[in-house]
Amino acid sequence: MYPPDGPRMYASKAEAECAGLMEEFQGDALREARARRPPPLYCSVCGKTDDEVRKMVAGFIANICGECVLRCVNIIDEVV
Q: Could you read off the pLDDT of 6-43 as tens digits, one per residue?
């Protein structure tokens, strides 16, 4: 048996061609999806992207993630 990344065995030439077309189509779809995705937002405080945090508050000039908001709330609670 071939390793997972080794050559694949197909029952017929048509099956092999179909598999090749599917892989090509999936690759094209993935490239199109990446091209349509907007650029990531970065937290202006910690630098994390919106993919790395649960929430991101986006402003006109700066962004802040939910984790940094909680840190700020804790700091204000300590001071007051």
A: 556 656 776 666 666 666 666 676 677 667 778 889 99
- What is the Cα 46 distance to its own chain's centre? 19
Both structure tokens of 38: 């907007």
Residues in the chain: 80
Please indicate, yes or no, whether the overall pTM of this predicted structure exceeds 0.70.
Answer: no
**Residue 64: CB partners within 8 Å, gap ≥ 6?**
43, 44, 45, 56, 57
> Domain locations in the chain?
1-37, 39-80
What is the Rg, in whole angstroms, of the alpha carbon atoms belonging to the chain? 23
